[in-house]
Known about the structure:
Blueprint (H helix, E strand, L loop, with lengths): L1 H11 L16 E4 L12 H6 L4 E8 L5 E8 L7 E8 L8 H7 L3 E6 L23 H11 L3 E10 L1 H10 L6 E7 L5 H6 E2 L2 E2 L1 H10 L5 H8 L5 H4 L14 E8 L3 H14 L9 E8 L7 E2 L2 E2 L11 H10 L4 H4 L3 E5 L12 E5 L7 E7 L5 E2 L9 E6 L23 H4 L5 E4 L7 E15 L5 E9 L5 E10 L18 E14 L4 E7 L25 E6 L7 E7 L1
Parallel strand pairs: 1-2, 4-5, 4-6, 6-7, 7-10, 10-11, 11-14
Antiparallel strand pairs: 2-3, 3-5, 8-9, 12-13, 14-15, 16-17, 16-26, 18-25, 19-24, 20-23, 20-25, 20-26, 21-22, 21-24
Helix pairs in contact: 1-3
Amino acid sequence: MRRRLMYLLPVLFGLLAVLVLPVAYAPAAETAPAAPAAPAAPAAEAEKAARPPWISKTFKVEMSDGVHLATDVVLPPLGDGPWPVILSRTPYGRKMAGAPQVAALLGYAAVSQDMRGRFDSEGENLPFIGCGWVDHQDGADTVAWVRRQSWCNGKVGTVGGSAGGITQNLMAATAPEGLVCQYIVVAAANLYTDAAYQGGALRKEQIENWTSQHKFDPKAMEVWREHPAFDEYWHRLDSTRRHDRMNCPALHAGGWFDTFCQGTIDSFVGRQEHGAEGARGTQKLVMGPWTHGGITRGKQGALTFPGAKPPQQYDMLLWFAHYLKGEDNAVAKAKAVAYYTMGDCDDPNAPGNRWQFADRWPVPATETPYYFYKDGTLATAKPSADAPFCEYTFDPADPCPTVGGRNLTIPAGPRDQRPVEGRGDVLTFTTEPLEAPLEVTGRLLAKVFVSSSACDTDLSVRLSDVYPDGRSMLMSDGILRLRYRESLEKPVLLEPGKVYEVTVDLWSTSIVFNTGHRIRVAVTSSNHPRFDVNPGTGRPWTEGEERVTQTNRVYCDAARPSCILLPVVK
């Protein structure tokens, strides 16, 4: 039974909070005061015999400011405790399809809570308003309440995916006493750079669709639009600023095509190298070939990756058994990093498509420039000819569409880019067929020399693996709103016609480009609706307001050699 439950618990207990469903029981609700709750009176023997295989109850747990949060508690069926506790906090509804009952059968007390303003909880219905260390500290208050209960042995672990992982990152920044470990899946670390904006461009489809589909107060969208720069508002939602206060082990799981890909890596590296005692050196990172909703699946976008399930030693059940029950299992011996290196999905004998392991991230690699040429070539030799630039004109009324990538609510993952690569406002640079496999593992950056006829424009850069049959499969991409080229905090408009050297961050990946394949970089000025469209006026996009066409030049001569920097593993 234990082995069967080992595979059931990760699916049911918050890995992807968007998949949760109501459970079958309807517990009575009661208000839990801030003071310690008195132990329950012993039940009669007859009542014990008739009770279900777990005990469940709903509390209204009082936060420090008097707001009450709806909180379900499910206790193990045998014994009187106390037990270690697995806690989840979610905006998607706390009744989690039987997962707490599974946890109870394994000897944990399971606690699931509606976040502030959500479902049966009081407070403003704004995302993550109470999760961090400013104004409200609902995560820390909840851990303190749990530890005061007679059924808790003082040890609390947290679990959750997506928003349920973000709230864990924010909670960790408060370092609540008794928080022993965390299991965090596909979660942003910094809500500005990982979720709402990227390179200064609004993540339109993600935040508009997410806030509306889950019926958040429309004020949330208004506030996020009012803060297009990385200002004090966003600092309060950036857990990376407090890594040095975090003091517990955490497993961070993410995917190369996940919308929060880089946030997962940043959380791991920040806590592993700069965390407080208890966190530093105790983190684990698992990166697979997954989209946000595709954890463990092999089919992602238009490609199928063999062996995509994560290695067993990073399993959630083993993680909690080790840290909450003190079991000596595979968790303690597991490498700090497990990462899936993607490869040619058509050739079963091709290199890649396997899990690799490392003691730290990033793994050793040589940053290798691949230069852009005016004739569309991509090569390691630096340009020497006097062919100064490639030019295209971008019309905001006809933006280049999103085709796959790190999306949340629209089709995601590796998809064929040929439909967009043929547009007149897209520049492509492609290598010759590779004579040997090439592994690229780590952070991808494009260094581009650019000028524009407008005072502002975007650079959207996409990296593809071009198969021998011509398919151009997107593997990574990024964007930069050029008014944020110097800083995400303070925008500076362009001087039309002036040449600037800028850096576009494509986040991270791990892939072996197979022999006979080609590497392609596509450059344009939009990726819509994943990102909002830059009107070229220096102001945010507003329907009905002015927008101008933007004639942009990408320079590729000896003095201004635009390139993409690939971390090549020997």
